[in-house]
Task: inverse folding
């Protein structure tokens, strides 16, 4: 379970999909980076990722890591968003039989995890069928 | 002139039928269906709560309004199922929308009318010139005690409204409140399920306050029931809104567009606000809409809205409420529903 401070540091990405676009070569870094891996530039302009995409691949997690045991089985996928960025997230609200490469998805705001009944709740994005 | 510049709805995909609940408790499903005029209700999945639904409904409201979320000066979430006892839902919602940090927030709670109270405050902050745009959300993931009559109706959903002074899709004609101390339904601190006064929730509670607020606003404006294209009243079950409408002189036709409860259940703070979203999905410019909420405890907020021509331009920018209600549904059996709603006691 992430600590409250780790969760807090990730809020711009988890809540609002904030990324950095290299001002020289256009590379989009998500999460943002200090140095562009493509051209070495250190200047990025803030951009927001697209909220729709297409599923490139997926898997079903049946033996879940700590903190996600109650959610298993659940699907995790990588989708190429409309702006070309590839993103990994859970695929919610989708029967496993309906999972397929090429599935149109959109990002929806969901609970990601919670630190027991008394701890902080971590929110963020998941894919759902578009 | 102030009013609504954007609206959005969110309804979870999962449903449970009245028969499925009745089967577990040995109850007579047909008599519940007939008595309450309910067929099924929405159920939030384990990763959904008042905050997640509020964010999604608000994003849709912002889409329809076409505004920069940084210009939202106040965010109010009204609910009786805020995920935290201490820590506002509004901070998460405002942060997810990109409205922070120049933004007021505090959570509202008033049984089923917390959403419309938030609407009243956000609208009036806009009218006072204190904020450019104000956002109010009515959202709930309410629980009825297992086997209680409320279990057949307590459901989940959210409706969000953005208020502003320009580019209105519906302008406010009037608003008023009717509120007394009436203990018809309550939940004490640390209690998981609410309690209610049975039939006491009817005449001295729901009917008295809705009729009080509706009569006040009609006499204040000089308008009469036939002047309205639509009316939406709080929907704790299927019967009450039609009965209170009839008592006030509204026809079934005026009410049924915003009457979602038979397939949705009672979304508490989201109830009449969600009904209004379905009406805005269908309304024509110049239509008048009467909206009266009800929250146990007890009180009603009444609003009269006049639809503007802008509605035609913005309504298709986000999903329509009826499409969310009738769309891709997943039906749950009681076991999965009990797991989703954390009704099953697990080892610590």
Result:
């Amino acid at each position: 379970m992430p600590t409250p401070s780790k969760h807090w540091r990730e809020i711009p990405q988890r809540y609002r999909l904030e990324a950095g676009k290299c001002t020289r070569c256009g590379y989009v870094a998500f999460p943002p980076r200090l140095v562009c891996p493509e051209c070495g530039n250190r200047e990025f302009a803030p951009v927001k990722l697209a909220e729709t995409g297409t599923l490139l691949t997926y898997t079903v997690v049946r033996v879940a890591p700590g903190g996600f045991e109650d959610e298993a089985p659940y699907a995790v996928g990588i989708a190429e968003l409309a702006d070309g960025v590839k993103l990994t997230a859970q695929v919610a609200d989708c029967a496993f039989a309906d999972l397929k490469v090429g599935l149109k998805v959109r990002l929806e705001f969901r609970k990601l995890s919670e630190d027991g009944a008394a701890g902080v709740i971590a929110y963020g994005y998941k894919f759902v069928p578009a | 002139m102030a009013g609504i510049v954007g609206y959005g709805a969110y309804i979870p995909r999962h449903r449970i039928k009245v028969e499925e609940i009745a089967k577990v408790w040995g109850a007579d499903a047909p008599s519940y269906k007939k008595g309450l005029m309910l067929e099924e209700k929405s159920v939030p999945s384990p990763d959904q709560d008042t905050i997640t639904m509020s964010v999604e409904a608000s994003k849709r409201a912002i889409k329809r309004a076409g505004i920069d979320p940084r210009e939202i000066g106040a965010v109010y979430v009204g609910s009786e199922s805020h995920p935290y006892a201490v820590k506002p839902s509004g901070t998460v919602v405002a942060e997810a929308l990109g409205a922070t940090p120049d933004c007021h927030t505090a959570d509202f709670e008033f049984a089923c009318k917390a959403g419309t109270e938030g609407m009243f405050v956000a609208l009036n902050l806009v009218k006072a010139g204190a904020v450019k745009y104000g956002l109010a959300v009515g959202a709930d993931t309410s629980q009825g005690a297992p086997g209680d009559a409320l279990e057949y109706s307590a459901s989940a959903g959210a409706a969000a409204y953005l208020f502003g002074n320009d580019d209105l899709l519906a302008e406010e004609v009037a608003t008023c409140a009717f509120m007394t101390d009436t203990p018809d339904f309550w939940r004490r601190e640390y209690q998981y399920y609410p309690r209610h006064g049975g039939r006491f929730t009817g005449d001295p509670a729901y009917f008295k306050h809705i009729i009080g607020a509706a009569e006040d606003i009609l006499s204040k404006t000089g308008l009469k029931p036939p002047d309205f294209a639509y009316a939406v009243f709080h929907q704790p079950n299927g019967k009450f809104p039609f009965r209170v409408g009839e008592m006030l002189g509204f026809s079934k036709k005026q009410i049924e567009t915003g009457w979602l409860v038979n397939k949705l259940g009672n979304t508490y703070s989201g109830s009449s606000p969600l009904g209004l979203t379905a009406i805005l999905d269908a309304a024509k410019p110049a239509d008048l809409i009467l909206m009266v909420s009800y929250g146990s405890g007890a009180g009603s907020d009444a609003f009269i809205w006049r639809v503007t021509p802008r509605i035609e331009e913005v309504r298709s920018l986000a999903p329509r409420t009826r499409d969310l209600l009738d769309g891709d549904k997943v039906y749950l059996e009681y076991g999965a529903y009990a797991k989703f709603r954390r009704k099953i006691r697990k080892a610590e």
In short: Chain A has two helices and eight strands. Chain A has one domain: 4-129.
